[in-house]
Amino acid sequence: MTVDKSILQKYFNRQCTPEEEKVVIEYLTNSQNNLDELQELLNEEQQAVIPETIPAALFQSVTEGIRSATWKGFLQPSRPMNAKWWYAAAAAVLIPVLGWFLWWQPKPAQQYDAEQLAALENYDTIFNTTDATAKAVMPDGTAIWLTAHSHFSYQPLQYGKKKRAIRLEGEAFFDVANDPMRPFIVENDKIITQVLGTTFNIEAYPGETEVKISLVTGKVAVNASTDTLKHFAPRILEPGQQLVYNKQQSGMTIKPLIYKDAAVFTRGWMVLDDVPLADALNRLKRQSGLNIIIPDNIKLNGKNITAIFKGGDPKEMLGNMLFAHGLHFKEKDGSCYLYKN
Fold first, then answer.
1. Cβ-Cβ contacts under 8 Å for 329 (sequence gap 6 or more)
2. Counting C-beta atoms within 10 Å of the first and last residue's C-beta, which end of the chain has fewer, N or C?
């Protein structure tokens, strides 16, 4: 799929399919691209805008949004990174600002109140397109360690007013700044986690059947999101507990947390706490780019893994994951095929 002005326009208007979105993000974050199509689109949109028709309140909000998206040192890799990380960080700033710019069309001046501005505000999305964990620091001092190829979104102008809300896809560890008046909220498509000041980890990978919340310190309340078909009473987690929510069964369980040291989650290690082997293999594929092929005769149901991988050769990690269940792999044409003796 070729990235042209039309697909860029769809992306910034939030009209892309998941496949198109993936292609555009790769285009924006690839340091080999010269972004000529993007520059041409910007030039056209700039000529179409009449600055005098933009309400002062909206213009001020856009300006503040640009400033909030350009914090110095917002993203901090947990280990030395190549240039690709910095292109990804630049794209994270560019995308929300451009979204504002392309959204605006000349129209008669009107007044916007605070609630209307909040509804109109786009989300900033912070991507980690690298193969390592990276640290982000929010305006309130909350630190977020974002696992490889994960991302989160938030509204910069609303963040910290009445609450501090973000939306996560993938995995992240949070060290939340204490603020009793403004709860910190993490959402995904099924459950909502609310805290005041604590350290915890969330695993919310697309395609996995479970969402896991691991609490290291403090307390968190977990509730159903509006998208959850089966609602349940809020659950309170204590330190050293893990909540597991099953998306298919809309049920949850609370069990003791195996890894209780916060450092385990912030060093860029792959932490697997009773994770289905199929999900563990998908995470390895996601983080390393390995093409892992599972033949039809290999059944992974009922096979779980608990381990910590501190980096190293992805193929060695794959071999260790499989060995515990009597499985192996062989390489052919750049892919890793699973087999059983």
1. 292, 315, 318, 319, 322, 336, 337, 338, 339
2. C
